[in-house]
Structure formats: C-alpha cells, structure tokens
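@channel sequence for tomorrow's demo:
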Amino acid sequence: MEDAPREARRREREKRVISQMVCIFCAGNHDASARTETAFCGEQLCPACKELDEYAVERTQRCRKMGAKTSCEECGNHCYAPQMRERIRAVMRYAGPRMITRHPVAAVRHLLGK
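structure tokens (generated this afternoon):
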C-alpha cells in the first residue's frame, strides 16, 4: 500500500534524520580515511556504519505505523533485531545531542514529531 502524501514526506524525513545521525556517529568515532561509503543522506561513512545506515533506512521504509507513531522506542512493534537495536541506540545517544548543531532544523522537527 502506498503512503498518503503527508506520511510519505514524514517517512522520507525520518530516513534522512536517521542517516544523518549515523553519519554524525561515524564522523565522531571512526577514522576519516575509513569513510569510503555514501549514506542515504549523501554524507560519507565507513562500511560498518553504511551497513547500519542501510538497515535503519530499510526499517523506516517498512514501518507500518509511520502515520501514527511518535518514536520507535514508544512503538509496540519493534522492527529492529536486538543487535541492531543496540547499535542504533548507541548512535542515537552519541548523535542526538550533536544534531542540534549539525542539522538544527531536522533536529527540531524530529523532536516535535512533525
């Protein structure tokens, strides 16, 4: 089933935000010379983070509750495998506070759930 226009915009925005967060994490934790891949958001990252980026973007694309959900943590349907959930939590803990300086508009929109 295809998304309504509003839901489709939100889904694309969510995919871009999670990808930006993975890139912030990668830039802060991995050597610049290792960042040979391109993320969904267009920034550079290492192969390990590229794997996580692809997984997170795919999970966001497949989310069945995009129109009604507030956050993945509050969702009753956990899409992420346990190992990947731990990896994305580490990314969010690191990148969340840094989003406001790197991508302020995206950070505020994400926090407001718009």
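heads up for whoever presents: The CA atoms of residues 25 and 50 lie 11 Å apart.
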